[in-house]
Amino acid sequence: MELVVISGKGGTGKTSVVASFAALAENAVLADCDVDAADLHLVLDPKIIRREAFSGGKLARVVADKCVGCGKCHEVCRFAAVSFDGPGNGAVDKTYRIDPIACEGCGVCAWFCPAGAIDFAPVDNGEWFVSETRCGPMVHARLGVAQENSGKLVGIVRAAAREIAERQGRDVVIIDGAPGIGCPVIASITGASLVLIVTEPTLSGMHDMRRVAELARHFAIPAMVCVNKWDLNPRIADEIEAFAGDGGMRSAGRVRYDPAVTQAQLRRRSVVECGAGGCAEDIRNVWQNVKGELNGRDPTCRRT
Amino acid sequence: VRIAVASGKGGTGKTTVATNLAFVAARAGRSVAYLDCDVEEPNGAIFLKPRIGEDREVSLPVPRVDPARCTGCGQCGRICQYSAILSMNKTVLTFPELCHSCGGCLLVCPAGAISEVPRRIGRLESGLAGEVRFVQGLLDVGQATSPPLIRAVKAAAPAAELTVVDCPPGTSCPVIEAIRGADYVLLVTEPTPFGLNDLQLAVETVRQLETPFGVLINRADSGDGQTRRYCRIERIAVLAEIPDVREVAEAYSRGVLAAEMSEHYRHGFEHLLAALDKETAP
User: Fold this and answer.
1) Which letter does DSSP use for residue A144 in this model?
2) What DSSP letter does each residue of A267-279 carry, written as one string?
3) What pLDDT does A301 receive?
4) Is the per-residue pLDDT at A297 higher than 80?
């Protein structure tokens, strides 16, 4: 089974919730699929036991010595990645140059270059890791700075986590997802057993929760909703749960605003490892409800 | 001057800063454009409450194959890096959702069998929020790639003395696209371990783009002193600090601009604007 924690809006508390779930689950594999701003490792302190390079695609590069300055690459590139400001090479005063950050990796320039002057080769876009933590095995990654293809890296992280779960007989993979609704989020939820949407009672949180709920529905993934810091605006918290109920989503419970969350982060521990009361109690309750839903039992959570 | 407000970590206050900046600059009589480039989850409209004057679809060109002309040579499948077009035994299949619209298949087809048709990815809305010229992109739910829509938002930017770009969180392609072309990047962070980790990633990204940048520390009295220490060691300018005030968080929850709520916060953002003016002065 795969549980994916997402939010739409960033900073609603996904990673703090996942870290607590990691501590509460007895037989889980953790996967940090927020590959371009991964934070779960800051709490779970993983010991890396396997490290793999990730290549998300290829990039084009003009070999200045071979460039004849014809401009074909500039003509065919649709991503404004080619400029006529490369160094001269004796034959021509200036050569073409490809901005690696703007390059989309389509290879069209390399295909059509009449001089064979464009090198089109796989690039390292980052790394992914398998680690041991005090809460069980964890798969995580680091996307290279300013790199593309985070969706592909998410796919690799998920597959590795599933493989460990099967091999070790662990019953659930808990996935920390990315904010937004784009490619890394889609890659982290497609085919998952359950999505938990962690949101906050603000107009922004509600707006973004609606879009991410629509995304879950689009891919036919069952979803639950958890309103974090609910006491910041109880009225909007009610509205979010009512909206969720109308859409056939169950509430997994509310979590109160509690400075203990930041304090736990500073101690590099999950909230539930630092204390029993306050929001730690709320998160335990949310975990029970999510676990119940995952196990297909009727959870104790209230229908909204 | 174009200022991109970015963060690495989500939820640190990008939209709060970007919308309040646009508001105080317009109030000071400057011509201001606000571009919401967080097209997956745009929230600027909640605070600026624009009157949308123009609403149009944004599409990308994807291939359509004319089977009558196709000779089954397979060149289209060979040039495509995204598995968006496959040629097998004279049958060509296209997968528009995987297409990056590079146009390679169209160029390579020797039979002229490929043309392009638009595929909708989202919407572009523009209008006025008070005196602020407002543009936002809205990615359709289920679409994976936001950079083309972000490009469309930037292309629709109205002329203005000050353009504020509200960026998506993260450090990968959508953020890069939103930041490209900016004169200055303001990185909004919070002084927690998560905030600092993601700030460091964002700093590496912005340095790679060679764009000048500074930091704003939000909820400055929560967390610890590590973020300030990092900025000091790395010689990164901290342009402003905003304390963690429940009143502000509650106003935010209702979609109210802090600068509109109280004179105190308005002055705070006016100071920030002055600091940005200094940073971006030629």
Assistant:
1) P
2) TTS-HHHH-SSHH
3) 39
4) no
